[in-house]
Design a protein that fits this description.
Length: 149
């Protein structure tokens, strides 16, 4: 995954692929939102949980190792520039989005979460998560752009 990329920005193949996958997952979340608005909750759940599962896989397989290998040494040395700021913002919001996504899926699709910790207003939580996810995608695109420009 560290070979030459295909988007012409000087990034690796894995970075290019991850960028496109993450944008695709964001679009899948929007498709899931349309399903929910139309009352197709099974299709909505399939879209949202599939997007979450693939985002977790891409985070564990690509983003976390890249963050640890490329940016942690710079951060440990106190290097702060537009790329490291974008990376930290992306990682922080992305981590929050993933955790919130897991919580929403567990509340909406299972009985694992005890009743006192379950939310009742699904729409507000899911809209908040969708906005957070798209902000995270935007920060990821910004990180990609800064790191490979």
């Amino acid at each position: 995954m560290f070979g030459e990329g295909f988007l012409g920005r000087g990034a690796t193949f894995g970075a290019d692929l991850n960028l496109l996958v993450q944008i695709g997952l964001g679009l899948l979340l929007l498709i899931g939102m349309v399903f929910a608005r139309r009352g197709s909750y099974r299709a909505h759940g399939a879209c949202q949980s599939s997007a979450l599962a693939l985002a977790i896989v891409m985070t564990l397989v690509w983003m976390w190792p890249s963050f640890h290998e490329i940016y942690v040494p710079d951060l440990a040395r106190g290097i702060a520039n537009r790329t490291t700021v974008a990376v930290v913002a992306h990682a922080t919001l992305g981590g929050a989005a993933l955790l919130l996504g897991v919580y929403v899926v567990l509340v909406a699709g299972t009985a694992v979460i005890p009743p006192r910790f379950r939310f009742q207003n699904y729409s507000a939580w899911m809209r908040t998560l969708l906005v957070l996810w798209w902000i995270t995608i935007g920060l990821g695109v910004l990180t990609y752009w800064f790191a490979n420009g």
